[in-house]
Amino acid sequence: MRTAVVFKWARDPQDARINMDDELVWGNAKLSPSADDPAVINVAHAISPEEDIVAITIGDGDNAWAAARGAASTFIVEDAADCLDASRTASLLAGAISEAGGADVVIIGDSEWNKGVPVALMALMNYKAFAGVTSVEQAGDSFRVHCKNGPITKVIEAKPPFLLSVRGLTTEKAAPSMKQVLAARKKPQTKLSSESLPKVRDVHVVEGSASLPESGTVTMIDASDVGEAARKLVEILKSENIL
Q1: pTM here?
Q2: For residues 98 and 91, is the Cβ–Cβ distance under 8 A?
Q3: HSE on the CB side for 6, CA within 13 Å?
Q4: Dihedrals φ, ψ of 155, to 5°?
Q5: How far is CA 178 from CA 7, 31, 36, 67, 168, in A?
Q6: What are the backbone dihedrals phi and psi of residue 128, each rounded to the nearest 5 degrees, phi first?
Q7: I need a surface site. Which of 167, 187, 232, 239 has the fewest CB within 10 A?
Q8: Which of 136, 60, 125, 119 has the alpha carbon at shortest distance from 97?
Q9: Is residue 78 within 8 Å of 189, Cβ to Cβ?
Q10: How far apart are CA 70 and CA 232, in angstroms?
């Protein structure tokens, strides 16, 4: 069962800064694994033996992170970094998975840092997809996927291929030793460029700064009469030069 684990694909919002020109900048901050990435690795080990786990990542930072936790090899899109365009980031990851030889199961974190990427990757991979995954267990030739939504946990039995968006509920309990980290750096790493990947989407989002709107009055519209409410809304939007 070949499993692709996606790690270190988003920026930590805490690394963002606003410069003197009121622009959003990231400075020298490197990409780092999210709080969900250890859970991604745990789920992968429940599905596949280590020799069948391939890691997928982009940009800079610790590219041996997944290898230190059991991935047999790592594919890195070196010239790509997380951007605000979730569809582009997802297309880079999908392209890297294809270059890695494909996978029966793709696992990615349900990251708070950029929730659009897992959803876009689901669409691009065209696999059965499950979100809010907390654990997986084998059941014959199928798997029982535990998905948490608020206080409710659903258990769904499914056969690969599928994509899992994993939610980490706890912090990593046992980080790799220095010996494991050093050994991980000797595992195979394949470096890719975004230009070599198929169907990578162009960037359509421009990073910028953000600020809270000026406070003002709030207009309440009575929606008991839908037609009158719509007319009133249009009237207000025109008065604000929005329409």
Answers
A1: 0.80
A2: no
A3: 32
A4: -115, 120
A5: 20, 21, 22, 13, 24
A6: -60, 140
A7: 239
A8: 125
A9: no
A10: 60
Token pair listed for 166: 């994993």
Give the alpha-carbon dihedral of 163, 168, 169, 174, to 10 degrees.
130
Q: Looking at the chain, how many residues does it have? A: 243
CA–CA gap between residue 129 and residue 122 (Å, rounded): 6
Query: What sign for the dihedral angle of Cα 195, 197, 202, 206?
Result: negative
Bond preceding residue 161 cis, omega within 30 of 0: yes
pLDDT tens across the length of the chain (243 residues): 899 999 999 888 888 888 888 787 877 888 889 999 999 999 999 999 999 999 999 998 899 999 999 999 999 999 887 666 888 999 999 999 999 999 999 999 988 888 889 999 999 999 999 999 999 999 999 999 999 988 899 999 999 999 999 999 888 888 899 999 999 999 999 999 999 898 787 766 665 555 666 666 677 888 788 888 888 888 888 887 777
CB 47 within 8 A of CB 75: no
For residue 20, give both structure tokens. Answer: 């003197």
CA atoms within 13 A on the CB side of 118: 29
pLDDT of residue 217: 67
